[in-house]
Structure formats: structure tokens, C-alpha cells
Amino acid sequence: MTPLALPIRPIPYLDESPASLLIRAAENNGFVSVLQLLSAYRFPSQSDEWLIASFVDQTRFSKIIHAMGLHKNCISLAYRRMGPTSKSPREMNGIGLAERLFRNGANVYCPECLKEHPYWRKAWSILPSAACNKHSIRLLQDCPSCKQPLSVTRNRLLYCPCGHDLRQAKAEMVNPNATQWWSSLIAARDQEALDQMLLFWSALREVDGLGDGTAAEGWRLNTTMNWCRGDQCIDEVLEVIEPRSPYIHPRLQLLPFLREKGDLCDFAKQVLKRHSPFVFATPPRQHEGQLSQEEAAAALGITSWQVRKIIKAGQIKFITAHLGRAKLISPNEIERVLRQLSETQQNERSHQRLSGRHSLTGIIKNILAGYARTDGYDLNPPKLTKLQQGLAGTLLSIKDQKLGWRA
Ligand SMILES: [Zn+2]
Ligand SMILES: [Zn+2]
């Protein structure tokens, strides 16, 4: 027997999040959770996954809406994908936003907006939004009383299970300029400006490691806005990376910028130039993950071709990927080489003039021994000695031989 339509059917708000509508449906009809509501209509209800996937799948969401007898206008609350795969961007106001920009669920909110109209706004689901444009307060995250995240399958929209009324929460007053700027980019449907801005924002997010809390997001969005408007923003980034540099080489920290071309890479180089001197801590922090040869090259400031040669010469250990033959490199290896480069830069040994007769392996040995300069250890470049000027000339001639040193 087909289950009957819900006796009490919520009317959707135009900018309501799909999670919000289903929580209201569960609440109005006495279900203990959204999962129990799904189960009553024989939809998968073992975990949140199927439910969350339905928010970005209008076909699946329309089946839920139809089964429960909700108005067909509810279907448009689910996001559309602007492409065929689950990695395709979500459509928001006619523009595409990458999947990583979304907060799933109903856990970030403005208490003042909830007081005015009791539903979750879609705008709160997008990661760079950190403030309420209307009330100039920082968006809240989690229950302010018990500090627990607010579940996407809860059965009371405005209350935490601990009993706290979310509308009564106090939020900090903040300048909403950056969030307004972000909203205006979306409203203008300027995909190109948005993509540009998001390149910087994404790299900064990887570098700062401050997480996705709304306080960190406010700082990140503000820094991104200032950079897009022509400010240098070097001090802001130095403040984040300098305390970590004794443990993680600044070039590895700035890799998300260095591996990009053009403005972002130039930005990282400016930050490196202004970095204060520091002493390496021992032992270095152990890094996780693996780098591609291109990333290793960007971190060291040399070309991928040179990285392959260094690997061949046995001076960097590599990891063979499970599938395919790509050689991946542990960031710990890059940290080791960068430290070696930085330390040998400071020693007073006389520099050996390179000649075109040197094999590449020989040149790399020279770099590692501190005889030749690369982009990899230019934190506080000393004035070039006569010998180094000669060396620079030699490196230029090597460049002519397609060895491709980066300036
Ligand atoms: Zn508000
Ligand atoms: Zn609570």
C-alpha cells in the first residue's frame, strides 16, 4: 500500500535549504527524525548519506516531495548540477559553484533571521559566507549551549536536542563588507570574477589551515576581498605561516600558491621575500600525503624535468603510485632537501663556478651542496658576490640549453 501524503505539509520559502524543509516536515508531523520520516516512505534511511545526496539531485528530491504529497514548488529547493557527474558544480543563481564550497546540513545560522522567519536560508550553506548581511552579525555554528553540531536529521528546526532555543543565541557584531562583496559577485553572475577570487580563497584556505568555522571564514574572505581589490595582504599570510616555519618549511606551507601559475605564484614569492629569518626545529614535523612531481618542482623552485633527474640520480626518494607508473614524493623528502638548501645557503664555502660540461646530476649535487642557487632557498637572498654573479651568468647559459631554471 502506498503511504498517504503527510497530514501537515510545510509551505516552502523561496530561499529555503532542502534540509530545512524536511526537518520542518518531520517536526510538524511528529516524527522523531528525518530518517524516521524517510523510512515511513520506504526511502533509504540507514544513514545521512542518501538524504544529503538528495539535496543535489532534483530527481531524487522530487520523488521524496511527491511521495509525501508536498507542493511541487518544493522540488526547486534542491540544487541542480551543472554537469553530468557528482563532481560537477552546483548551480546557484545561474552560476556554478564547486562542491567543496558547500556546507551540507543545517548547522550555520543567523539567530536574528531565525527570529524573523523560522527557516534555514540557502545562503548560509555556502562556505565563504561568514556574516549576516542584514543584521551585521557573525553567523553562528553549532549549538551555543552544548557546543554540539546541529544534526541534519533532527526533528526540531529551531531547538537543539539539549533544549536550547537557537533564536536566543547571542552573536558577535561584525563588519559584513566581505560577505556583502561575496553576495554581490553571485548576484552579478560574473563567473570569471568568481572563479578568480576562488582560486586565491582556496589556496589561502589550504595554507591557513584554520578550518571552516565562521570566524576563520570571516578572516579568509576579508583577506581574499582585499587581495582582489589590489592590497598586498603579505602581512596577513606571514602572520599565519611564520610561527610554523621552524617545523614546516615556508615553501611547503605556500605550496598551494606556488603550484599555481601567474599572480598566485608571484604572491607566494613576495611572501617568501618578506619572511623573517628563523631557525629550523629538529626534528621537523612529519608531513602526511604525497606530492606529484609537479608539486615537488613547485616546492623546490625547479622544473619537473629537473625533479625527474634528481629522482633518477637517487637524491630524492620516491613512492610508486598503486596504479600507473607515476612517481610520487613524500613531503618529508622535500622538507629535507629544502632544509639542506636553506642551511647550505648560509655557509661560507667558496662557490664553484659551473661550466657547461657539468652533467645535470652534477649540477643538482651542486645545488644540494649549496654551490648553486635555485628558487628553492631564497628566503632572504644575500647580495650576490662576484662569483655568484658569474654563476648566474652560467645558469642563464644553462637555461639556453633548455635546462629551464626558473628565475
Ligand atoms: Zn540575519
Ligand atoms: Zn545544544
Automatic annotation (TrEMBL):
Name the domain of life this protein comes from.
Bacteria
TniQ domain boundaries = 7-139
Please identify the protein, giving its name as recorded.
TniQ family protein
**What is the source species?**
Chromobacterium vaccinii
